[in-house]
Backbone:
């Protein structure tokens, strides 16, 4: 009970409060004492104890404490103790786990993976983090950071070192969000170019085959792999050494390493012209082409309608104008958002309005289907009906977005990597849910009703009315799938900068969407 209370109080005390140099050292002492006690105790830490202690580790490396770590005057030993103690605590967690079991712990400033496995039963390489695993934060999803422990390390240990029974290993891996920024800048005109990744295994095998992939967080040249070696600090670059590691591949965005030992690793480089790099800030050519082509086609369509307004004036044309405005606005916001991830306020505003216009585009397709439904029923478009269309096209998206912003207090709108809804916390469903309802339910029902009415024996006698209803139905059936595919690829292209496929698909579908809307509503329109 005493250990649990201490763990809980430390997590609460370090949460959101500024810790000065002495507080940091005192917190490290508490963590060390608690870990040592658990190591000697005949019982394992409870699930709450584990969560509280990992939360304390995460709190200590929060942004608000960065400057005060430097006040410790023994920052190298403090950082070393921090990483060593966390590594040791992961092994304590692993000892209490069942065989062949993996545990993942996600905190604000670090992501942890612990595995307990028998060498004889390791079927393949150990990879962390597992791509596509749910619950990973955005800063992990948006990076190429990855650890691979070769199966050969376990096979050699099983065959050579242990003759009677297969050894059981505990593997601990930590990806730190921004621990590299807590360290003093390396000398010799060198910068730390990536996050820090810690890898450990207990007991350590005789032969280690370890591969690491790093995404660059700073611009630099001559990138190479390094590990934390504070023991030989006088002979290393401010605690970093490259011994036992080999750089397998490096480009402007990532570096691949192969190392022969376990430690805490990062990438060092010579500084480039810009100290900070974020690929999401540089506009992708595919996004520019897709958004520009689509917007130009829709703007041209609106100009043509304005020019021949007397001939094309109709309620359907009014719906089309609003639909075009929603798509053009979305395209503009996508391009703006790609360059504003560094500005939290602007990025949040862009994400909110992008959410609104994305939903609005679906709702205006729905209004066109509704208009077709009213046409086949012979209902005339009165002013009150037009107001209802406006409420559906603009009011419903505004209500959904306002509710989402109010409920979340704008948390989840915009991240450090993209100006869109965060993948965490379920906020994305406030877009996917309404869009799916519009696409799969309402439009489908209205489309079936209108189609049946058009082909029925007692079909509409008025040929002009029948033509307008059929044109609206056909337009909805063509545009809606393209709209869904376009915005789906847009979301995937924005949230996954590592992918080359989704930006290309977005470019194709968005360009095709603008072209199809122009052809259907201009070239193929008799008026």
Residues:
């Amino acid at each position: 009970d005493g250990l649990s209370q201490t763990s809980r109080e430390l997590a609460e005390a370090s949460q959101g409060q500024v810790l000065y140099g002495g507080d940091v050292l005192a917190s490290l002492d508490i963590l060390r004492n608690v870990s040592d006690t658990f190591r000697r105790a005949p019982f394992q830490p409870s699930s709450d104890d584990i969560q509280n202690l990992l939360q304390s580790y995460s709190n200590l490396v929060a942004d608000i404490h960065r400057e005060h770590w430097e006040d410790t005057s023994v920052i190298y030993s403090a950082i070393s103790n921090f990483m060593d103690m966390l590594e040791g605590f992961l092994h304590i967690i692993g000892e209490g786990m069942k065989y062949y079991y993996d545990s993942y712990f996600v905190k604000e400033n670090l992501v942890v993976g612990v595995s307990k496995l028998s060498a004889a039963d390791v079927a393949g390489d150990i990879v962390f983090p597992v791509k596509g695993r749910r619950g990973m934060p955005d800063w992990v999803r948006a990076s190429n950071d990855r650890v691979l422990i070769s199966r050969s390390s376990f096979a050699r240990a099983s065959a050579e070192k242990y003759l009677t029974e297969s050894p059981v290993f505990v593997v601990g891996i930590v990806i730190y969000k921004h621990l590299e920024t807590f360290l003093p800048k390396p000398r010799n005109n060198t910068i730390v170019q990536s996050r820090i990744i810690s890898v450990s295994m207990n007991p350590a095998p005789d032969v280690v085959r370890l591969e690491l992939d790093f995404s660059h967080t700073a611009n630099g040249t001559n990138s190479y792999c390094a590990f934390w070696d504070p023991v030989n600090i006088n002979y290393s670059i401010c605690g970093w050494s490259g011994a036992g590691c080999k750089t397998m591949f490096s480009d402007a965005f990532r570096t691949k390493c192969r190392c022969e030992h376990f430690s805490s690793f990062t990438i060092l480089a010579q500084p480039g012209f810009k100290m900070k790099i974020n690929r999401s800030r540089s506009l992708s050519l595919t996004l520019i082409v897709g958004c520009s082509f689509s917007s130009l086609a829709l703007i041209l369509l609106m100009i043509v309608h304005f020019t021949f307004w007397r001939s094309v004036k109709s309620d359907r044309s009014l719906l089309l104008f609003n639909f075009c405005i929603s798509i053009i606005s979305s395209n503009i916001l996508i391009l703006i958002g790609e360059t504003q991830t560094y500005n939290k306020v602007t990025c949040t505003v862009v994400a909110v309005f992008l959410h609104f216009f994305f939903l609005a585009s679906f709702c205006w397709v729905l209004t066109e289907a509704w208009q077709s439904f009213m046409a086949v029923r012979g209902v005339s478009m009165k002013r009150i009906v037009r107001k209802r269309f406006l409420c559906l096209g603009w009011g419903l998206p505004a209500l959904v977005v306002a509710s989402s912003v109010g409920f979340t207090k704008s948390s989840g709108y915009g991240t450090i990597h993209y100006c869109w809804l965060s993948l965490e916390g379920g906020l994305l469903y406030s877009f996917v849910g309404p869009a799916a309802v519009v696409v799969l339910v309402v439009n489908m029902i209205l489309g079936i009703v209108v189609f049946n009415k058009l082909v029925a024996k007692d079909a509409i006698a008025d040929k002009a009315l029948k033509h307008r209803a059929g044109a609206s139905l056909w337009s909805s059936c063509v545009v809606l799938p393209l709209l869904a595919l376009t915005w789906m690829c847009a979301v995937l292209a924005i949230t996954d900068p590592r992918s080359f496929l989704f930006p290309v698909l977005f470019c194709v579908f968005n360009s095709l969407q603008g072209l199809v809307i122009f052809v259907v509503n201009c070239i193929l329109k008799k008026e």
Remarks:
- The chain has two domains: 1-271, 275-524.
